[in-house]
Amino acid sequence: MSKDTIIIIGNGFDVCHGLSSKYSDFRDWLQTNNKFLYETLNRYIDISGDWWNDFERNLAAFNVPKLIDDAPKDYPSRDPRFPPSFYYPANGSFRNIRNQISESFTEWAQTLSCPSTKPRVDIPAADLCISFNYTDTLEKVYGIPENHILYIHGKAVRDNELIFGHSKSHFELEDETKKKYNLYESKSFFVPGTFGDAEYQLTLEISFLDKFPYKQIVKYDSVLIPALAVAKTIWVYGLSFSEVDFQYIEWITEKNPNLRWRVSWHVENDKKRIKNTFDALNVREYEMFYL
């Protein structure tokens, strides 16, 4: 194995090997296996266009006002000192939805398996492979030992807790709620028990659907930092370079700004996202190749 090379594997790598691992496949699985959750997501999140391709990112766009409207109201109030609450019933509904998303996503991920054992990509020797996927394709198809692979989001066949979600912090969601209603000067909107207060409080619940990238990085920094210190080249296969990936790429470039990046693309929009990411991070040493 080579210590000066790191490999990153994203979902496009699994798709290239015939796995039904797109978020649109998760949608189809939900239609059969959890119709309630499928219809719920359709109701509370905008699924127009390619929403399912941006499943993680759009979890931050949950339609909280509609959820509050749909939830039963807290009459009478739980405490006579306070008015009836919009928050508690809506929060109960949201937590149920959130738990179902997590359980169903894990159940779906555990069904994924590689239909082919033939390698389809020439990948270089590397001492460390960072897999953003939940599958063991690198082990089964390429014979890479498990101890050379960092499953940064968990591994389904190990029954790990699988990490997925958007990349917006509680503070970002809170700020968006305030801007949405021009609330910085408001004195009445966040009165306890009101509709506005309920929406404000529910932003914290939505933040729990955050992937918390830096939390995952810190969890494995004892592996990542030494590997990055000696690495010269990093190969990336099938990573979307979406906003939910940005913090990972940012952290890597901060730890080793001299890395040579070799990044795969599949459709033209991939090239644009890759370029925009590297421009934002002032990375100039990169090349793109078709996968």
Features:
291 residues; alpha/beta; Rossmann fold; six-stranded parallel sheet; 45% helix; globular
Based on the structure given, which CATH architecture of the largest domain is correct? 3-Layer(aba) Sandwich
Order of helices and strands: EHHHHHHEHEHHHHEHEHE
Arithmetic mean of pLDDT: 85
Question: What is the CA-based Rg, rounded?
Answer: 21 Å
Strand fraction? 5-15%
Measured distance between first and last alpha carbons? 23 Å
- Low-confidence blocks of residues: none
CATH class label of the largest domain:
Alpha Beta
CATH topological fold name of the largest domain? Rossmann fold
- The coarse silhouette is globular
Could you characterize the architecture of this molecule?
There is one protein chain. With about 290 residues, the protein is α/β, with parallel strands linked by helices. The protein has 2 domains: about 5-20 and about 115-165 and about 210-290, Rossmann fold (3-Layer(aba) Sandwich); about 25-110 and about 170-205, no CATH class. Helices cover about 45% and strands about 10% of the residues. It has 13 helices and 6 strands. The chain has helices spanning about 10-15, 25-35, 35-45, 55-60, 65-70, 85-110, 135-140, 170-180, 195-205, 215-220, 220-230, 245-255, 270-280; strands spanning about 5-10, 130, 150, 235, 260-265, 285-290. A 6-stranded parallel beta sheet has the order 3-2-1-4-5-6. Strand 5, helix 13 (about 270-280) and strand 6 (about 285-290) form a beta-alpha-beta unit. The radius of gyration is 21 Å and the shape is globular. The mean pLDDT is about 85.
